[in-house]
Amino acid sequence: MKIYLKTPEEIGKLRAVNRIVAAILDEIEAAVKPGVSTLELNEIADRGIKKHGASSAFLNYHGYPAVLCTSVNEVVVHGIPRSDVILKEGDIIGIDFGCFKEGFCGDSARTLCVGKVSREARALVDATRESLARAIDHCVVGNRLQDIGWAVQSYVEERGYSVVRSFVGHGIGRAMHEDPAVPNYGTPGRGLRLKPGLVLAIEPMVNAGLSDVEVKDDKWTAVTKDGSLSAHFEHSVAITEDGPLILSQS
Description:
Order of helices and strands: HHEEEEEHHEEEEEEEEEE
Structural class: alpha+beta
CATH class: Alpha Beta
CATH superfamily: Creatinase/methionine aminopeptidase superfamily
Radius of gyration: 17 Å
Distance between the termini: 31 Å
Strand content: 25-35%
Number of helices: 4
Oligomer: single chain
């Protein structure tokens, strides 16, 4: 495992590209409504990339065919945008987006409610968002990597949800995926000690049912094995002497 600690200048560049990511996600969020296809959301992201002079982190990554991941209802992550996947009232959709600018990568995700959703769906989305906030609170110098995962796991499991273990967060910088892996579960006080300059993409994926996931025949779309709803939030976060700096906030 090779850990690459970033300088303040590099963190500044990561903040700049993550602001682009946040701005494009804001545009996509504004367009999410019943009757919109997930391919239309991908087209918004593609236009945003061009407008900001960035390049896609997702397109052609190990063959991935789009610039955006659109994960509806039981899709955990890596849903491929399609013209025939039309959002309807009551859906939830995870939108995951990343891009490069000036040699650095930004990466963030959020789960959105389409129109009026069930109380159960809203509770899952809210709990997953809150678990990310609690994980970020543990991103302080001297803490351990598994403190982050435990913050997610303990919060959502108390509410009867399951943490996905097949997919994890990651370091981020000049590459989209750097060391270390950042699981959304763990034992407090274990793992890598957090140091200034470490930048992590923390991304809890939480299922309403069991944690088991399977990947569909397209080799990308990961769904809950029991068909239960899943939610996903992600921020890129820098560890600093002054506490966590959320790079991918608007």
